[in-house]
Amino acid sequence: MWAGGVGDEAGGMNTSATYTDAHPSQTPPPNPAQGPTPGQGANSAPRLAIQAIGLRKTYGKGDAQVRPLDDLSLDIEAERFTAIMGPSGSGKSTLLNMLAGLDIPDSGEVFIGRTAISRLNDRKLTALRRDRIGFVFQSFNLVPAMSAEENILLPSQLSGQKTDRRIFDRMVDLLGLRERLGHRPHELSGGQQQRVAVARALVAQPDVLVADEPTGNLDSNSGEEVLNILRASVDELGQTVVMVTHDPRAAARADRVVLLADGRLAGELAQPDPESVAAALMNVTAGSAASGAAPAGQSAGGSAGPGSAAATVPTDGGAR
To answer: What's the CATH code, domain 18-24+49-291?
Structure first.
């Protein structure tokens, strides 16, 4: 059971940040058809929920061509909360879509557990997104004609699977939705609608929950409630959460903040706090702007340090 209610601080705000200028560790699976091997034992590498290897994505042609992802590699550890940040155009939304199977890279691979996404046909990819990925969007994406309860149960109904009512009841009570189950979205506040969306994602017990600016349309109090829920889902339920956000306060609730610039990894923060996240994002943004039209991969920052974090875009396209 979760230790606290929706309004309780779940996991607390970390007070010390460690900035890493280099990109996160990646180890390609020995057999790409099988994906990364989960770590076993106390001395093994962390178990991976998602592994992205050498992702490239290009849109448009000629002068209109943009490359939001440029040979980007990233590991997402299971049962941890990872936030992704970066300046506008850095590739963070494109990356989240790739990690969730909503888009396919031009080259490179994404593994969900041991499943290589690019090798799936449309039917299997749809089933993977439905059964193994939970989605929480900025715009809630609730069906207007359905009640809160019907919205929560919709994914299970579409998959033909029976919902575990014990899990349903647990989520509803923990998210404070019991008195709102019969209400339609227009009868709910923004915070209540987002809680319904989170319940819908968690009831299915996904391998990974991806959240795209989940507090972007909420006031500060409602946003804090949603962040408490996401934090508690990791701490108390062992959920894996990946969140894109522009808000340093939201990112500071994560275990790890990954920073992007020009379609590549620009660094990361462990044990983040709002001040260190804001400083790191400012330096990455300044470095990206200073690079101008220079090819992705050139230097985009200076030295790094806790609370005053600068970033350097890897010149080798990221660790493999």
So the answer is: 3.40.50.300
